[in-house]
């Protein structure tokens, strides 16, 4: 490469470095896409598996025996559409509420001020709520419940998809698991 000028060498080195960065970003993007899309792909392909495939440890993703039995069972169940509607409605409402509530801190809606978590102690001291509805990330659900129990809250309607508990007497949790209830519903309606 002695025949290349210094300027040309620098340009090639810069392009090579740029190409390495682009390839690295592309590899990361593919990895993220795999992590995000794999569960959806797995569930879709599993819906076409026969019962033998579901219990066969050698079947990982692609069914050996393709079948539409699950869909036939769903269509033959009279309450499926209503159950699916309600499950989807609940999931969408909770997701929308969780998303919107974080964006609205400080705003007033129909006379109700959306407050920050920093104001929790003051709010509970002023209004003395008995029940809290939890729609927070799983990682903060138990610490938040403990914090609220310490402030005197005794009932929890828990949409965090994690089991909450306490050693305090007189505290009650109603844990709502959308994924579990949807799977249970799907199983029940697929049974003859």
**Low-pLDDT regions:** none
Largest sheet, in brief, is: 3 strands, parallel
Give the strand tally.
5
* Terminal Cα span: 75 Å
Shape: flat
Q: Provide the gyration radius in Å.
A: 26 Å
Order of secondary-structure elements: HHHHEEHEHEEH
Structural class determined from secondary elements: mainly alpha
Short description:
This protein is mainly alpha-helical. It is 58% helix and 8% strand. The chain has seven helices and five strands.
Textual characterization of the structure:
Helix 4 (80-103) runs antiparallel to helix 7 (178-190). The chain is mainly alpha-helical and 192 residues long. Strands 3-4-5 form a three-stranded parallel β-sheet, with helices on one face. A two-stranded antiparallel ribbon has the order 1-2. Helix 6 links the parallel strand 3 (131-134) and strand 4 (155-158). It has helices at 6-46, 51-55, 69-76, 80-103, 120-127, 138-150, 178-190; strands at 108-109, 112-113, 131-134, 155-158, 172-175.
